[in-house]
Specification:
By secondary structure, this protein is mainly alpha-helical. The chain is built from 14 helices and eight strands. The protein has three domains: 42 residues; 101 residues, DNA polymerase, domain 1 (Orthogonal Bundle); 131 residues, Intergrase catalytic core (hpI Integrase, Chain A), CATH 1.10.443.10. Helix 4 packs across helix 6 and helix 12 packs antiparallel against helix 13.
Amino acid sequence: MASFEKRTAKDGSTGYRAKVRIKGQPPQSATFKRLTDAREWAKQIEVDMKNGLYFKKTQARKRTVAEVIDRYIEYLRLEHPRRLETTDHMLEWWKKKLGHHFLSGLSEDMISEAMSGLLKQQVPNREKGQTYTKATVNRYKSALQTALSMAVSPWGWMEHNPAQSVKSMKESPGRTRFLSKDELARLLRCCRESEGKYLYSIVVVALSSGARREEVRSIKWEDVLLDEGKIILRKTKNKRHRTIHLAHRALQEIRKRSDDKGRDDIYVFPSEKGPDKPIDFRTAWRTVLKNSSIKDFHFHDLRHTAASYLAMNGATPSEIAEVLGHQSLSMVKRYAHLCDSHTATVVKRMNERMLIDA
C-alpha cells in the first residue's frame, strides 16, 4: 500500500515523498517534485513487488556483466571444472568486452555487435589472417547466454536474458576433415617424438575409438576394463554412458600405461600437477601439428578421421553412429559418400540372391 507526504525544503520548495509497504517485502520510499510522479512511481513499485520483480530490477541497476561472469566462473570451478576449462577464455573475453555495463543496460544489440566484431578478429596463436568461424562465435554466445541465464534464475539479478533473443550465426556444414595416410603417418611419428607426456597414447586412443578430446583425457582407471578390452565413458557430451572398445595399438598403449601407472593415479592420463587431475595437452598438440606440417586440423578432426576410415572400410552409417555415440544418423550423413562402395556391394549381393531364378 502506498502513502504520500508533502515536504517543504529549507529553500521553501515543496516535494512529495512516496512510501510503499507490501507484506513480506522491505518498505521502499522516494521523493519527487511532483505528486503525479510520486504516484506513478509508487504504482509501478507496487506492481513490481507483487509480481516479484522489484528485487530483480534493483539488482539489474547495480550489478554488472563482470559480476555475473565472475560468479558464474566460481560456480563452474566448484560444480563443473571440466566445462570451465573449455569456456573460461570465452567468459573472460565477454568480461573485457561488456563487463563494465550494468545488467539493466545490457541489450541484444550490444551482444550482436560484439559477436560481429569477434567474427573479424584474428585468432591468437594461429596463422596470420585466420579469423574466428561462425561456429566458434556461436560457442562464445552460448557461454555468455548460460551465464546470464543463471543471473535470471536462480540468482534473481535480472528479469530476462538478452542473449537468448540474439540469433546464432548460420554455420557452414559440418567439417569432414580427416587425415590422409601420409598425414596420419607424419602425425603419429611426431607424437612419438613429442615431449608432451602421453600424447602418442592419447592420439592413438582417439583415432581408434573416435572419442572426443574431453572423453579421452578424462578416462579414469576405475572405468578401464583391460581384460575385456574396453573403457566405459561416463561423462560424454550427450550425458549418456558409452563403451569404447580397445583394439590393436590402442589396447597396447593402455596396457603400457597400466604397467607404469602411479599408485595414486586416478586418471589414465594424469596431469603433472597431480594424479587427481586430467592432463592438459593443448600446447603439446599445437607443437605436433606445427612439426608435422599438417594444416587446418583440430583434435576433434581425429574423430572425423576415425569415422571416415570406418566408412571406407565398410561400416554402415548406423554402425558409425554407434561407435561415435551419436543418438541419430543425421550427424553421420557427412560420411555417406565414403560408404558408397560398401552400399554397392550390399545391393549387388541382395540382387544376386533375390533374383537368382528370375
